[in-house]
Amino acid sequence: MKRIAILGGGTAGVAAAYFLAQSGAEHDVTLFEASPRLGGIVETVREGGFVIEGGPDGWVTEKPWALTLAQELGLGDEVIQSLDDTRKTYIYLDGRLEAMPNGMRMMVPGDLQAVEASALFSSEAKKAFLDEPARADALKAAAPDDDESVASFVARHFGPEVLTKIAAPLLSGVFGGDVNTLSVRAVMPAFVAMEREYGSLVTAVQAKAKGTQRPIFTTLRSGVGTLVEAMAAKIPLRWIRRNEPVKRLKRTGEGWLVDGRPFDDVLLATPVDVAAHLLEPTDHRAYELMQMEASSAVVVGFCFQENFDLPQGFGFLVPPGQGSLLMAATFMDQKFPGRIPSGGRLVRAFFGGASALRLMRCGNDEIASIARMELARILGPLPTPTITVVRRWPNSLPQYAVGHLGRMAELESRVQTIGNLWLLGNGYRGVGLPDLIRDARKAAQELSA
Ligand SMILES: Cc1c2[nH]c(c1CCC(=O)O)Cc1[nH]c(c(CCC(=O)O)c1C)Cc1[nH]c(c(CCC(=O)O)c1C)Cc1[nH]c(c(C)c1CCC(=O)O)C2
After folding, report:
1. Which of these, 332, 339, 343, 397, has the minimum number of CB atoms within 10 Å of its CB?
2. Each residue of 177-187: pLDDT tens digit?
3. Pathway, according to UniProt (predicted)?
4. Does residue 99 line the site of ligand 1, with CB under 6 A?
5. CATH (one of 3.90.660.20, 3.30.110.30, 3.40.50.300, 3.90.1150.10) for 294-398
6. 149-159 as b/e, with b when 16 or more CB fall inside 10 Å?
7. Which residue, judged by its Cα, is nearest atom 20 of ligand 1?
């Protein structure tokens, strides 16, 4: 019987424990969670008919692994999709919310007429979009053999305006990060492949848009929290140790000592900085490879009993330098069905970067009042919310900087050499919930083989 320690009870750690429990093999598992609660940054608050997400509100439909898990857990009837018929994403520019043109795939237009008609871009930026297909050969030739930043990739294709107006805010809304440091190969592999094949991204997106489009986001009727709760309910209770942060990890001849207790295998599913610190005595090079910036977020959910007008669509993003403390906001009741009781509104505000770090030190009431003020400056006066949920997520989103894939390949080979070790979580092979679930399943399969 293998003695397995899972360190960290967020989505990755809980999923690993769940898959081990399901494997049919006789494992002796201990899941160490530092806090009193499982789930990490996944947390659904259900109150007064509102479904309020403290962390992620869903996942990207394109990645199948969370949906498969939901179905295995018997949650098939709970699965719902985003309301894409009325999908719009706004960018806050020069004091106004300007809609992104329809048919955009991130910063690449699928519909050049929609770009032409948009008030978001100057005539120069429109010309850059229109001219890009003709530059296909040159773009292919200019593609570096190595990694590059998202900024340099986007600027090569579409110039500086598209970079600052669309790519920067969109990437902050997905990776919380800075386009000048983010690795294009790690965060936009699909676009890199398109460039290799077509040269022009516009041509590639148009060629690929011909198939039927599924809604962009998927979630569960009662919230993403249900996914973690349903997994946790199938983990033997004696496996779970809450309020037990692990302080020391030591490799022994055959296995590990976790705060002095012997185990055969270790799954490190803590935040990257914690995992790096725990591995430092075992492998200093692994520790170095795990040094990465992580961005922080403060999320505020506001529930309103009254209905009031909001722009149609999912929400808005704020590019750097637009004079708002907000990074983004989501109009939850327009993004997914069933988030509110009949009538009412549910709006989520996000702070990131330096604003998040500053706000993190304030009390909940102060954070909520700043969030309301910042929302009202952009959306106009808001009614008084009946429920407010504030969550702080320090260092929660690792930044995949230029060279990330190369560093991760080296880290993986260190992990193989160390042996009896798995690294799980959002610092390595993808930031979305589906990525975490895919990796946890794979680790459990390898352990049970
Ligand atoms: C600010 C922020 C958001 N979401 C996120 C942040 C970063 C800050 C942080 O959590 O630390 C994080 C995020 N957003 C997304 C992911 C998953 C990415 C993946 O699975 O690869 C992750 C990890 C999907 C997304 N999130 C977004 C896209 C782009 C959608 C598009 O092309 O329109 C994706 C794939 C855009 C986004 N993202 C957000 C808003 C308000 C919007 C626009 C409106 C809306 O949909 O709610 C909120």
Report:
1. 343
2. 899 999 999 99
3. Porphyrin-containing compound metabolism; protoheme biosynthesis
4. no
5. 3.90.660.20
6. bbbebbbbbbb
7. 432
